[in-house]
Specification:
The structure is a homodimer of 259-residue chains. With 259 residues, the first copy, chain A, is α/β, with parallel strands linked by helices. In chain A, 39% of the residues lie in helices and 23% in strands. Chain A has an 8-stranded mixed sheet with strand order 1-2-4-3-5-6-7-8, sandwiched between helices. In chain A, strand 5, helix 5 and strand 6 form a beta-alpha-beta unit. In chain A, helix 4 packs across helix 5. The relative contact order of chain A is 0.11. At the A-B interface, helix 6, strand 8 and helix 7 of A face helix 6, strand 8 and helix 7 of B.
Chain lengths: 259, 259
């Protein structure tokens, strides 16, 4: 009888351990006095995993970013979605998004503070290996990860997906410690060639390790199905570029995390 | 006794089959009346494998290309190194290399004929899956694979490693069937920005599927240890870019060969 009970208990524990896997939930955190609402996803069965900060596109932290976080958790990472706008606020429409994003693009110090608060929250997440963290960002979030790097943040790499590449203070390139991967639509009309050239100069002058990838036929927001299918609008989903850029990001993670 | 003999025979056959693996050898072939000496490498134990044409850098078909062929064979591909200069001729020095390469860069029809002869030889190689072929090229060979694509060759993809990107006939972009992957040193002084822009326009106007990747800190010949370690010369090995570009090529092969 005791043997049977012991076996049942043992099996239950094993089952419980195998089942304690995907966690995905909102996370309250702070930037000074400002309350923020992020989102974390990870596999609780892994004792330790590299952490990925996800910086959202200009609408705010939406189901899109949460989906990406769960996708990364399924691949064995701890993924934390940043709340840039505070209170988990999501813009009602693109007009409001433009105003909100403009506030942060126009005040890079504020943007960097908000980004670093999110990075601290990532590092405080369960199971994360704080020595192996990276950041990825979409559109406005791509600008965000570059700003995180320019703030001198201690991340191993940053990945911009069709991000805004401009910088009002290119000298800050000298602060970049991270390796940089810029994944961009060759036909993205929202990034002037002058911005791309300026970013290359900024990173080159600072001796930053960067890779710059252009995908033909892709415009802005090419990783985002909600952008629709009409490239003539300047923003559109591009499945081919989405898959390729995701693969490029995973290769980059393998390299920087030493897998 | 007969059982023992049968068992021994069976074991010998199994051992023989397991051992019939890496083949690497010179291959005589023709371009019209011109005798050419290529090199093929493949795993004879595989019934069928995608074929990769390797177009050499300007010195001709050297141990470098043969090494790459064996490396690809080890990964399960049939690799065939093209002989562009005929008779397996290798330049004595860079001065001669410049003259030989110049002859083909100055006569793209001849270059294309020589490239297509090599592609036919690849397709005639044992074990190759003729429906799944690609071409890769280094420097002058990078120009070569782009010319192969511009000739309308039926390859699934071409990969240029720090290739010359210029074209005297950009309208030929319309002939390109292959997907194109251009892997380039961000600091390569031998490729004017105007050439890069012209190639992008050529491919974009023709609706070609291309990817363009720049590696920071890499100059010309970044995949080639024989180029030395001094980037100030304009050509130098760059291990980081070499590894990343090789990975990018393998991802590209996975995609175009449907693995």
């Amino acid at each position: 009888m005791r043997l049977a009970l012991a076996v049942c208990l043992g099996l239950s524990l094993v089952a419980a351990a195998a089942q304690a896997r995907d966690v995905a939930k909102d996370v309250s955190y702070k930037d000074g006095d400002t309350s923020l609402l992020g989102y974390v996803a990870y596999d609780n069965a892994k004792a330790s995993a590299p952490g990925i900060l996800i910086v959202p596109q200009w609408m705010g932290l939406t189901d899109y970013e949460k989906g990406r976080a769960r996708q990364l958790a399924g691949l064995g990472y701890v993924a934390f979605c940043a709340d840039i706008y505070a209170q988990g606020h999501v813009a009602q429409d693109t007009k409001e998004a433009g105003i909100l994003a403009g506030k942060f693009r126009g005040d890079r110090a504020l943007f960097r503070a908000r980004l670093n608060a999110a990075l601290r929250a990532l590092r405080a997440s369960p199971t994360v290996d704080a020595r192996r963290c990276a950041a990825i960002g979409y559109c406005f979030g791509g600008t965000g990860v570059l700003e995180l790097a320019r703030s001198g943040a201690d991340v191993l790499g940053v990945v911009s997906f069709h991000g805004g590449l401009d910088s009002p203070t290119p000298a800050d390139g000298k602060n970049v410690k991270a390796k940089v991967l810029v994944l961009h639509g060759a036909d993205d009309p929202f990034t002037p060639k002058a911005d791309i050239a300026a970013m290359e100069k900024e990173l080159k002058d600072a001796g930053v390790d960067y890779q710059l990838v252009f995908y033909s036929g892709a415009v802005h927001a090419f990783t985002q199905p909600m952008a629709g299918n009409d490239p003539s609008k300047g923003a559109a989903y591009n499945e081919r570029a989405d898959k390729r850029s995701w693969r490029a990001m995973l290769d980059f993670f393998d390299e920087i995390f030493g897998r």
